[in-house]
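Subgroup meeting minutes
Present: P.N., E.W., G.H.
Scribe: E.W.

1. P.N. recapped why we're keeping a running log of single-chain structure predictions: easier to compare across weeks, and new members can see raw inputs and outputs side by side.
2. G.H. added today's entry (338 aa).
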Amino acid sequence: MGWRGAVRAIAAAQRAAERESVRRHRQFERMSKEQAKRDAALWAASEVEEYENLIDRITSVHRDCSAPWKWQTLSATASPPPPRPTDAEELKALAALDAYSPSLIDKVFLLESKKRARLIANIDVARRSDAAVNATAQQAHAVSFTDWKETKDLADRILTGDPAAFRDAVDELSPFRELSDLGSNIAFQFARDTPATVTLTVNGDSVVPSESKSLLQSGKLSTKKISQVRFFELYQDYVSGAVLRIARELFALLPIDVVFVTAVGNMLDSSTGHMVNRPILSTMIPRETLDRLRFDTVEASEALRNFNHRVDFKKTKGFAPIEPLESPTSNKGTGLAR
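Output recorded in log:
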């Protein structure tokens, strides 16, 4: 092959290599676009799933509730017994010393005294080990005893109807964390021989999403503004459900028979042009009536018909301000469960 042929061969090899590089580049671009589409589809699906989960939480807060607290049982629970001291390691070390019998090699090479000294030293090490185990057990018992004492004291106070104990239980156990996470604020009032009163402050804009999300057939995300009617419907479901959830949690936590719950919402005051908090739903909920409801199937807004309540709600206008029900200042027999 002459030099011209060699040059043509080299040039052809270079063009082939360039074509392979271009092919690989286009393949990489195609794979990148496909991966981007998959990532976009996964993101869109995640957005829709998160939206649907929020809607489910908003409309079903009344369906869940904490397990009932058994304050009578907690009050009668005996204190944790103190730990029994152990000397197990010391006994092992003593047994090893007692069992030692010098062998012929020990006697020939004068090893007996050294081995006995080592076994005697092991006894002190074993005692320190036992002491450490006993100290740890004592510390654990002290923690357990403190927990038991605090729980028993709280149980005793709750069983006597101490309002401060009711507040302590609510603050300590936080049964309304889910409602707080959704942007609601809850305030309580407890008084002896008087029904508990609760004020639920909720802003619809902080609870109900302003947009709905769904997946198109292409897998892309579709976002639409929620209609006012749908917004009011979800807001009503949440407020009604939150009121019932509060009553359920209080009855599960405390030995009370009646709770007054008033929901307060942020709305426009036409006389000033400012947004202000106004009562929008108020109800008196007896434990006996609430316990008869099937919360796995009942709709929250419909369930309120079982109780004395005040609400002014229209599908096209939402909530209107109402005068809340007044809890009696003294109504023996309705506050503390018997």
